[in-house]
């Protein structure tokens, strides 16, 4: 019986070591996202992570990742907000700028960058971007998002119960 008890800590240590080695690190690829209490866009926010931050993936469920932040907070982020690969920028010429802001990386990931946006604005001077800029700053509360989904019978509120 004593041999079994002496063996148990070794087994637990081995399991912990394997789980650490198999843990997948994700990198946040958008400007910022909420770490939520549940895998829902309207769930309470526990923390916020920004572009370039890393989180440990614990599990995934229906397009959401359960993660642990560097600060030890465990919660959910949408899978579209993170990637297992780090964003690496490499210059082809030493004279080129190799750093990028979080906003530039996010826009580049969506096919936009500052030069593309400026070119589009130059080709379309009649367009007023004031409302676009205003819309980008607008934030909805979790309760407003939930109410919108319920009214529109979207997401989990559109599924038959």
Spell out the key features of this protein.
single chain, 161 residues, alpha+beta, SH3 type barrels, five-stranded antiparallel beta sheet, two-stranded antiparallel sheet, flat
- Which CATH class applies here? Mainly Beta
Number of strands: 7
Secondary-structure content class: alpha+beta
Low-confidence stretches: none
Estimate nothing, just give the exact number of structural domains.
Answer: 1
Terminal-residue CA separation: 51 Å
Q: Report the average pLDDT across residues.
A: 79
What is the compact description of this entry?
The radius of gyration is 22 Å and the shape is flat. It is 35% helix and 23% strand.
Q: Mind explaining what this structure looks like?
A:
- This protein has 161 residues and is an alpha+beta fold.
- It has one domain (24-85, 102-157): SH3 type barrels, CATH 2.30.30.
- It contains five helices and seven strands.
- Strand 2 and strand 3 (45-50) form a beta hairpin.
- The radius of gyration is 22 Å and the shape is flat.
- The protein starts with a helix and ends in a 10-residue tail after the last helix.
């Amino acid at each position: 019986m004593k041999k079994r008890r002496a063996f148990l800590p070794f087994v637990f240590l081995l399991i912990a070591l394997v789980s650490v080695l198999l843990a997948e690190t994700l990198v946040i690829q958008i400007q910022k996202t909420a770490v939520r209490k549940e895998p829902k866009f309207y769930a309470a926010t526990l923390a916020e992570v920004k572009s370039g931050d890393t989180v440990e993936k614990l599990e995934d469920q229906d397009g959401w990742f359960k993660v642990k932040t560097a600060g030890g907070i465990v919660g959910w982020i949408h899978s579209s907000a993170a990637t297992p690969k780090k964003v690496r920028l490499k210059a082809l010429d030493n004279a080129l700028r190799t750093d990028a802001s979080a906003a530039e990386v996010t826009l580049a990931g969506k096919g936009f960058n500052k030069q593309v946006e400026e070119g589009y604005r130059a080709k379309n001077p009649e367009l007023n971007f004031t409302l676009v800029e205003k819309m980008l700053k607008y934030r909805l509360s979790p309760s407003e998002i939930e109410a919108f989904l319920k009214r529109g019978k979207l997401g989990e509120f559109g599924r038959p119960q």
